[in-house]
Amino acid sequence: MMNNFLVLPMVAPLLTGIILIFLRSNVMLQRILALVSIVLTAGAGVYILERIQLEGILRLDFGGWMPPYGILFVADSFSTLLVLTSSIVTGIVLLYSFASTARAEEKMFYYPFIFFLLAGVNGSFLTGDIFNLFVCFEVMLLSSYALITLGGRKVQLVESIKYISINVLSSWFFLLAIAYLYGTVGTLNMAHLSVRVAEVGQGPLLTVISLIFLIVFSLKAGLLLYFWLPGSYSAPPTAVAALFGALLTKVGIYAMFRVFTLIFYHEPEVTNTLIGVMAILTMIGGSIGALAFQDIRQIVSYNVIISVGFILIGLVVSTDAAFQGAVYYLIHDMISKALLFLLAGTMIYLTGKAKIAEMSGLIRNYPMIGWLFFITMLAIAGIPPLSGFIGKVLIGQGAIEAKAYVLLGVGFLSSIFVLYSLLRIFLNSFWGETIISEDDERPLKKGMAVPVLLLGVLLVVLGFGPEMLAPYVSDAANTLANPEIYIEAVMNGKD
Amino acid sequence: METLITLLVGVLVTIAVYLLLSRNMIRVILGTAILSHAIHLLILTMGGLKKGGVPLIGDEPADYTDALPQALILTAIVISFAVTAFLLVLAYRTYKETGSDNLDTLRGVNDE
Q1: Which of A192, A248, A434, B54 has its CA 20 to 30 A from that of A133?
Q2: Taking CB atoms and an 8 Å cutoff, what residues of chain B touch A353?
Q3: Choosing among B90, B102, B105, which should be mutated to test the A contact, i.e. which has the most A CBs within 10 A?
């Protein structure tokens, strides 16, 4: 059977990246190729999603090696929805970077690195092998190292040293966990791992290994171990920061969902309780950070952290409704965080200032940016009928079903802090007397306005029409809640 | 043999942690390099050191050695090599820009 198209979401960006390296001097051609390729990648995502609804979970065994021996790609609704969303978000961020990126950086392999990053992200979503997950993480991280330093400003260099060091350490923990896991159960295929772990029982040893995985993914996702995140995410140029905020932490969250619903789901008293405590502390810490800082980029980065904690409530309570909510919220969060970073970057570009106290009355100069910011704020806070609402309701419903009232309370309180922290930006920067005279007003580039508007439209559409996604999301949640579906498709599925 | 290698891994990790905790940027980078060597040895040990013959079709020894850890290490070595190279260049650039290789002086730089 021909499942070869499964590899497209990873290979298309990878090949595009390689081709773009050779087109270094021709920026126009780079841009056109980049757009074509991203449309193709997103198209492959849509096609795979439709095929999954018809045929169930798809897999591709590389080189014809049957599981559990070979390396394989597995596409279920959960991973493909995320692949699709990240491709779309990357496409829109690419559009933005056409307008915002300096010519010199465009010639210094900016687009190839974006595509390598996307290849790593999509690969992490699709892979069915835990070592391959490590490799895809590294592909993603290496491109992010290059992107964060591109431009070579002092603050970028200093922040990237910390960013890279902490990621090298977490990759080390990842390898450590894989080594222990391989030494204990002797396999690396995730479905096979699940079978083996279920056979021998998840004893204390395996639980400890699962906690090492938890450390790794928490570092990547910014769950409690988020100390590196605000600094690193406010250093790079706007478009890159938007990609980081939208995609990188989500890959960590995805890995956590995958590992703790598929492999280590036998000891929820230990693992889920710990994740729950970490999620609560993350939301509290993120809320404090979001209120404490004056710099918009810092505030926005702390908003990323709060949402990480919130999504993981879905994993902790592990009911069907909560999984659905988490999937909805992940999709919403990728789009809204990209939009938020782009808006913050646009504000900084327009005013030349980064502190909220130094801006005022922007809505008079740039009404579109102002209203978009307002809509984004409402969407992230979860006001119906915008896109954050459905995710929050379903996660809340799941938390009530599981009687996790503390999580529920902290989760919804954190929404208020999110609203307040963004409202602070809105009141300070958009309202009030305008301080930019008409002569000094910097024109808003069309190339910046259009992508931001596109993301805003996506948020509204997602808010008004979650039914469009409903069949895919419920299938994704169903697979998360019943790991045997995934295992069956990988171990016994016809090829 | 496995016990010895495990002890060696422990020694390497100790050295690496000591280096990682120092303030000098080059020492930190060397620390990450040693750390990755330690984990490669650990993966090798986890698969079991030489237990039998070469896993080739044709030879028929009674027992095969697991070849998978070697494939894993090969991948991991390439990755850690790339990251270390990148880090060294980055450290050099940072030193030229800031005139310091002391991590204490590189804390919380305010954007000008």
Answers
A1: B54
A2: none
A3: B90
Rounded to an integer, what distance in angstroms lies between the CA atom of residue A51 and that of residue A57?
A: 9
Rounded CA-CA distance A383/A392 in Å is: 9
pLDDT in tens, A161-209: 999 999 999 999 999 999 999 999 999 999 999 999 999 999 999 999 9
Neighbours of A449 (CB within 10 A): 17
A-B C-beta contacts closer than 8 Å: 91
Q: Which pLDDT tens digit goes with each residue over A25-45?
A: 999 999 999 999 999 999 999
Kindly report the nearest CA distance between residue A87 and chain B, in angstroms: 25
Residue of A nearest to B91 (CA): A161
B49-90 residue pLDDT tens: 877 777 777 767 777 888 889 999 999 999 999 999 999 999
Q: Is B93 on the interface with A (CB under 8 A)?
A: yes
In this prediction, residue B64 carries a pLDDT of 80
Could you give the angle at which helices A470-481 and A483-491 cross, rounded to 10 degrees? 90
Q: Closest residue of A to B42, CA-based? A: A179
Interface check for A205 against chain B (CB to CB < 8 A): the answer is no
* B32–A contact, CB cutoff 8 A: yes
Look up residue A342 and give its amino acid.
L
Confidence check: pLDDT of A141 > 60: yes
Angstrom CA distances, A323 to A58, A328, A397, A408, B87, stand at 21, 9, 11, 15, 39
Q: Do B97 and A154 touch (CB under 8 A)?
A: yes
Cα atoms in the Cβ-side hemisphere of radius 13 Å centred on A390? 26
At A494, the pLDDT band (50, 70, 90 cuts) reads low
The per-residue pLDDT for range A316-325, each reduced to its tens digit, is 999 999 999 9
Tell me the whole-structure pTM to 2 decimals: 0.95
Mapped onto helix, strand or coil, the DSSP state of residue A58 is: strand
Q: How far is B93 from chain A (nearest CA, A)?
A: 8
Q: Which of A135, A152, A172 faces B36 most closely, judged by CB atoms?
A: A172
3-class DSSP assignment, residue B102:
strand
> Which ipTM did the prediction report?
0.94
- Name the closest residue on chain A to residue B34, using Cα atoms: A172
**b/e sequence B46-78, b meaning 16+ C-beta within 10 Å:** bbeeeeeeeeeeeeeeeeebbebbeebbeebee
